[in-house]
Amino acid sequence: MKINLNPEAIPTKISTKISTKIIVALDVPSAAEAINLCDRLPEVDFWKIGLELFIADGVTVLRELKTRNKRIFLDLKLHDIPNTVASACRVATKYGADFLTIHAAGGRAMMQAAQAEVQDSSTQLLAVSLLTSISATALADDLKVGLEIPEYVSQMVLLARSSGLQGAVCSPHEAAKLRSLLGDDFCLVTPGVRPSGAAIGDQSRVMTPRQAIAAGANYLVIGRPITAAVDPIAAWEQICQECV
Ligand SMILES: O=c1ccn([C@@H]2O[C@H](COP(=O)(O)O)[C@@H](O)[C@H]2O)c(=O)[nH]1
């Protein structure tokens, strides 16, 4: 497939629509760096705050993103006993994030308790099914899981849905199967996205942005290919073009 490299050839309506599906991971160590990136990329509407930034300066960044009317994915990947996770979710709702993650591996009781705490808030829980850094070999040999990745991920996402959640994080590799299992009302968010030619790094199950969208992802999470690029603005624009 030929990639269209001419931004002027892209109808604004399509590129706007694509850009709303991309969540950029703000994996930087300080509020100053996060806000600088945010202001350099005004077209990015949806930002992800992960553990590094949340631990460093989370409250400041949340406030700054809110002031700029940005959508926020608070990627804390909570995983603990039900009471602890539910309490953390209750406190997290006060930040007004759009998405918040918990690990599906925490089990049904944990997910149900967490869901009960966010039910009446503007925050939607997403269940992390299997980290996109985990390969088939690691799942079988290190974690001693007897299922293949597609079956394991389906199992975790079905468990999340039957625990009351309406969204999950998976790799683009599992998105098509999950979409056909769950229909259109379930939200699938896929990290493990790499534009053609980008370094894969510590990810294992990756696809291009265009492939991830075609597989049925509602949102793509992309971090280093944009934030660690020499020119983050050009990288963002190139990715939006690549999706068309
Ligand atoms: O399974 C998962 C869950 C979350 N992530 C997060 O997404 C970004 C990906 O960043 P890249 O730089 O594009 O690899 C990162 O913040 C992870 O914590 C994930 O990769 N996989």
UniProtKB/TrEMBL annotation:
E.C. no: 4.1.1.23
Active-site residues (renumbered):
75, 77, 80
Q: Which residues form the Orotidine 5'-phosphate decarboxylase domain?
A: 21-239
Identify the metabolic or biological route this protein is part of.
Pyrimidine metabolism; UMP biosynthesis via de novo pathway; UMP from orotate: step 2/2
Q: Is the Lyase keyword given for this protein?
A: yes
Q: Which UniProt keywords apply?
A: Decarboxylase, Lyase, Pyrimidine biosynthesis
> A biological process (GO) annotation for this entry?
'de novo' UMP biosynthetic process
Q: Which InterPro entries match?
A: Aldolase_TIM, OMPdecase, OMPdecase_AS, OMPdecase_bac, OMPdeCOase_dom, RibuloseP-bd_barrel
Q: What is this protein called?
A: Orotidine 5'-phosphate decarboxylase
Report the source organism: Pseudanabaena catenata USMAC16
Q: What is the lineage of its organism?
A: Bacteria, Bacillati, Cyanobacteriota, Cyanophyceae, Pseudanabaenales
